[in-house]
Amino acid sequence: MEKPAFDPGLTQQYVGTLKRALNPNGQFNVRRTGATWRDAHPYLFLIGTSWPSFAGALVAAFFVVNLFFTALYLAIGVEHLKGAESRSVGSKVLGAFFFSTDTLTTLGSGSVFPNGIAANALAAAEAMTGVAGLALATSLLFGRFARPSARIGFSEGMVVAPYMGGSSLQLRTVNRRKDDVIELEAKLLLMTAEWVEGRHLRRYFPLELERDSVLFMALTWTIVHPISESSPLYKKTPEDLARLQAEFIVLLKGFDETFGQTVYTRRSYRYDEIEWGARFAPAFKVDEEDGDLRLELDRVGAIERPS
């Protein structure tokens, strides 16, 4: 039986215009449809979203809950909120709203207080909601801060550089944070789009690396694939890679000593993000005054072109 072709999980078949499989930010270029409300997971969204989106979600939730309880206070009658019943209509609404915010945050009602069983029961329910909401927000904040995340920087492009009498495909990485990431491992994958037996197929080729792991990444790490006779890139030209819509996907795994956990990061490069005949310029140097190594993070993608 013929062995199935290698597929890392990105499928072999495609129809129409082929976009990159992996965006530069590491997210897969997949749009999901047909999902139901059961598939939504607010916790995962709030843990994984950006900080501005997270803050916006908390503020929006705070106002929505307060508006909900304000509507309930108005439904049972503002006269049950002593201190707000004698105000104008607009002031009554604002009074009920601010009473709701004070109750939700358990700060106290100030000059306004509930009167009657219905108003007191509603205030008690809102206070309980506020305590539960504060606990939930605290857990989300802790989850976001405690979640291990790598801040590995990648060069903006790849280079095909001279290498041991031949050539090699190279990209460069750097740890942009001061925390130590050790025991790093790298995998590099070539994806092509080809017309095979009357249909479009994606094909995948794991690329052998000069060094697929390093113990430390205190400086930069240049990941090198030697283009030897056994390489899928052997004798390939820029035009060949463009015709194949070549995309290179790199996956890094390392152990973050600060979090005590394994972290992952990934990136992809398209055929038009390769500089042929260039090499990476040095990104660190020795300080002449004290002899320390100085790492220049903004030069991780700096290249030198032949004059």
How is this structure best described in words?
The protein is 28% helix and 30% strand. It is built from five helices and 16 strands. Strands 3, 4, 5, 9 and 12 form a five-stranded mixed β-sheet that branches. Helix 2 crosses helix 3. The two termini are 53 Å apart.
Chart the SSEs and their pairings:
Elements: H1 42-48, H2 51-76, E1 81-82, H3 89-104, E2 113-114, H4 117-146, E3 152-154, E4 158-163, E5 166-175, E6 181-196, E7 199-207, E8 213-216, E9 220-226, H5 238-243, E10 247-256, E11 261-270, E12 274-276, E13 279-280, E14 284-286, E15 293-295, E16 303-304
Parallel strand pairs: 4-12
Antiparallel strand pairs: 1-2, 3-5, 4-5, 5-9, 6-7, 6-8, 6-10, 10-11, 13-16, 14-15
Helix pairs in contact: 1-4, 2-3, 2-4
| Overall pLDDT score | 85
Binned strand content:
25-35%
Structural class: alpha+beta
> Can you count the helices?
5
Major β-sheet profile: 5 strands, mixed
Spans of 5+ residues with little confidence (pLDDT < 50)? none
N/C terminus separation? 53 Å
Order of helices and strands: HHEHEHEEEEEEEHEEEEEEE
The total beta strand count reads: 16
Identify the overall geometry: elongated
Query: Gyration radius, to the nearest Å?
Result: 29 Å
Helicity range: 25-40%
List keywords for this structure.
307 residues, 5-stranded mixed β-sheet, 5-stranded antiparallel β-sheet, 30% strand, elongated
Produce a short descriptive summary.
By secondary structure, the chain is an alpha+beta fold. Helix content is 28%, strand content 30%. The protein contains five helices and 16 strands.
